[in-house]
Amino acid sequence: MRLLWIRLTPIVTLSVPLVIATITHAHGAEASKVVRMMTRALGDSTVIYEIGQRLGFYQEEGFRLELILTKISTATQALLAGNADYLNHGSAIPVILRGMPLKVLLVDSDRPPHFIVTTPEINSFQDIMGKVFAIDDHAGASGLVVREVLAQNDVPLDKVHFRVLGP
Questions:
Q1: Angle subtended at Cα 50 by Cα 30 and Cα 74, rounded to the nearest 5 degrees
Q2: Residues 6 or more apart from 12 whose CB is under 8 A from it?
Q3: Is 37 within 8 Å of 92 (Cβ atoms)?
Q4: Is the pTM of this model over 0.90?
Q5: Can you say whether residue 105 is alpha, beta or left, with left for phi > 0 and alpha for psi between -120 and 50 degrees?
Q6: Cα gap 56→138, rounded to integer Å
Q7: What local confidence, expressed as pLDDT, does residue 123 receive?
Q8: Which end of the chain has less Cβ packing within 10 Å, N or C?
Q9: More confident: 97 or 45
Q10: pLDDT tens digit sequence for 111-131
Q11: What are phi and psi of 57, to 5 degrees?
């Protein structure tokens, strides 16, 4: 067994540098293209991109996705200036309606992805009265949805304390 090991050593010694050189050359020849996607918030709408990145789907196609967290106004300016490739948010619709040269590429949901998450002691909408309720923004989509859902479930909005936490 020892003799066999000694005979194979020169082959292994020569093969390893060749394999490393081939791998390095292949990666150097096909550098991944960076695709920049601007987003207003990290969460439900961006988890699909993170999954694709972690599973290597984008790398297989020759690019690397960068999610960049920023305000929608900054994201729109970056997109129009060519500093970003995509915008991940429906807030671009008003910009498009004002005449900016942008297109909707993908709609991945037919309803808002909002959830009401509570502590275990809250079992009904009535239990929310008198509690502090976190929302993204008073004028934001989830804030509007929450107020509508509470009103539909007979919860007076003046009985709930809304606290803005941001996206």
A1: 90
A2: none
A3: no
A4: no
A5: alpha
A6: 38
A7: 92
A8: N
A9: 97
A10: 766 778 888 999 999 999 999
A11: -60, -45
> Could you tell me how many helices (H) and strands (E) the chain has, helices first?
6, 5
Q: Which tokens hold the place of 3?
A: 């003799």
Give me 91's structure tokens. 């807030």
Cβ atoms < 10 Å from Cβ of 134: 13
Residue type, 141: A
- Tell me the residue type at 70: T
Whether 27 shows a pLDDT value over 60: the answer reads no
Sequence-distant (6+) residues with CB within 8 A of 163 are 132, 133, 134, 135
Q: How do residues 41-66 score in pLDDT, each as one tens digit?
A: 777 778 888 889 899 999 999 999 99
